[in-house]
Write a structure and sequence with these properties.
The protein has six helices and no strands. It is mainly alpha-helical. Among the domains are: about 50 residues; about 40 residues; about 50 residues. It is flat. The termini are far apart.
């Protein structure tokens, strides 16, 4: 079977065009070459890809290294604090109980002076830090004014599912009854009509009474 290289070499040597069979063989060789390149790339990617097991091991290794770094940093800070205290604070003599009163008073005054100097240095450092914070804030404001930008607040990401659940758990608002605040009106005309009907009934009863009285009077005569 002729390869792509053999076909190209044949074309260069003979100087003639390719036949149909040679063209098909060339296309087939190109397809095989591309497939082989794709297989090689996939194999290389698979070899260097992180499987779930590799990811788990890498995560454990990173956590272990971070824990060791934090532990070492804490030990270094503690050692630095001890070294600073040993340099600044004078150690008490072992024969403290055997010292006389004058020596003890002198020792207390020395410690008091050292404490006052330390407090003064601490106050100076605090004021220096406050001034630096103020200067940083002022410079930040000036930079934002020059750029025409403002500090954007950090927005909290809320999922759509959480919003839907909040709407479901939210209590329903009470329905407002607008008719309750309206002034109630009475139908005066209906009351007047009832009174008129009562008057008519009473008038008829009076006529009947008068007629009965007249009949009784004629019978007696």
């Amino acid at each position: 079977m002729k390869t792509h290289y053999d076909i190209s070499l044949l074309f260069c040597v003979t100087g003639r065009g390719l036949t149909e069979e040679e063209k098909k063989a060339r296309k087939k060789a190109d397809r095989e070459r591309k497939r082989q390149e794709a297989r090689d790339a996939a194999e290389k990617k698979k070899r260097f890809a992180l499987t779930p097991e590799k990811k788990r091991k890498l995560r454990l290794l990173i956590m272990k290294m971070a824990t060791e770094n934090l532990k070492n940093a804490a030990e270094e800070r503690l050692a630095a604090c001890r070294h600073y205290i040993e340099e600044r604070v004078k150690a008490l003599p072992n024969t403290l109980n055997s010292l006389n009163e004058a020596h003890l008073v002198s020792l207390v005054k020395e410690f008091y002076k050292q404490l006052a100097e330390t407090e003064e240095a601490r106050y100076d450092l605090e004021m220096k830090i406050r001034k630096q914070d103020y200067d940083i804030n002022e410079l930040t404001i000036k930079v934002n004014d020059i750029k025409g930008k403002f500090i954007k607040p950090t927005l909290k990401k809320v999922s759509k599912t959480t919003q839907k659940l909040q709407k479901l758990h939210k209590p329903k608002e009470e329905e407002i009854d607008f008719r309750a605040h309206l002034k109630q009106s009475t139908n005066k005309f209906a009351i007047k009509e009832e009174h008129k009907d009562d008057d008519k009934v009473n008038f008829r009863e009076q006529i009947q009474l008068k007629s009965t009285k007249g009949e009784h009077h004629h019978e007696e005569e």
